[in-house]
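Notes taken during the Thursday session

The instructor put the following on the board and asked us to keep it in front of us for the whole hour. The protein is Endonuclease/exonuclease/phosphatase family protein. We were told not to look anything up and to reason only from what is written here. First, the residues (369 in total):
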Amino acid sequence: MSLRLATFNVENLLTRFDFTGFRNQLRQDRVIKLFEVNSEGVYQQLEQARVIAATDDTRQMTALAIADADADILCLQEIDNMAALQAFEYGYLFRMVGNGYRQKFLVEGNDSRGIDVAVLMREETRDGQKIELRDIRSHAMTTYRDFDLFDEELALTNRIDDKIFKRDCLELDLLIGGRPLSLYVVHFKSMGNPRDGLDGRLSTMPLRRAEARAVRRIIEDRFGAGHTASKSFAICGDMNDYQERVDVIGRRGTDYRFEHRDEGESALDVFSHDGFAENVVRRRQPLDRWTLYHARGPQEQHLCQLDYIWLSPALAAHSAGRLPQIIRNGQPYRTIFPPGQEVERYPRTGWDRPKASDHCPVVMTLDLP
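Then, after some discussion, the predicted C-alpha cells were revealed:
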C-alpha cells in the first residue's frame, strides 16, 4: 500500500494587506519605490492594487505545482489562516485543476507575521485506502524550560521561558488504510542577518538546532527513546538549514560552474548523525537535491535544500526503492539550473515574479509497513 506525501512552502498565502512599508522602507515593495508616494492613503491604495494584480498569476502557479505533486497528504508552510487556505483550495486547487482536498488542518502558531503550517489531506489515497485523522496536537507553547534545552548560545537572544518553535511543530496521528503514521509538520527559524562576526545562517543556527532537538524529543516521548526506529513517522517542512549546497560560480552571459560541498555543521545533524531519520532527498544525485536558489549577486549564489521529508528508519526501509520528486516548474527564470535539470516553466512565469514560490515541492511515495 502506497501513500504520496509532499511538503511545500507556498510563501505568504495571505488574506490581508501589509501597509507597514509606508513607514518602514525595508518592507516596501520594490515597484512602489520607483514612485514618489507622500500620502499614506495613496500608498495603501497602490499597495492593494499591486498585491491583487500580482496574486492571481502567483497562485495559479502555486496550484499547478501542487497539482504536479499530486500528493495524498500535503504539508504547507506560510499560510495566513484557515480562511486563506479554504479560499485557495476552493478557488485554485479545486476550481482550476479540478482536484481539491476535503480535509484541512491548521493551528495558529507563534510567527510574528501570522504565517502558520497547515496540512491538506484527501479522504482516500490514490489506491483507495482511507485517510483518517485520529488526533492532532500543536506544540507551539512548548518552552526551552519544558524540554531542558536552554544553553549559553540560546541565552544570547532568548530567555528560558521563551517558546522553542518560532512557528509550530504540528503533530498528526493518522491511520492510512488502518495502518498508523505519525506526521510532524514544521517551519524552523529563518536565517537572519549577520551577528557577532557570523553570517545569518550560523548566527541563527542555535535556534534551529533547539527546534530540531525538540522535534526529536517529542517523537521520543511518544514512542520511547531508543524505540523509534521501528515506528512509522515522517518530519516534513521548511527547515531553513542545509547539510550541503551547490555553489554556482559565474555570472549571466558566461558559462556557470557547479561545485557541490558539504557543510561542516547543520542544525539538521540532530536528525541524521545517529540514523534517527533519513533525509530521502539524499537518494538523488548531489547536484540534484536542491529546493531553493539563493543569490546576492554573482559572488554569493548557491542551490540548497531547505525543504525536507525525513522518514523513520522503518518507513525509509519499506520505501527503499523509491526516489523523491522535486517539482521545479514554478521556479522563476532567474533560477540557475545545472545542466540536464532544465524544466518547462508554467505559463506566465517571470524572470523573478510571478512564480509558484522560491521553494520547490518535495514529494515522496511511501510504501507503508
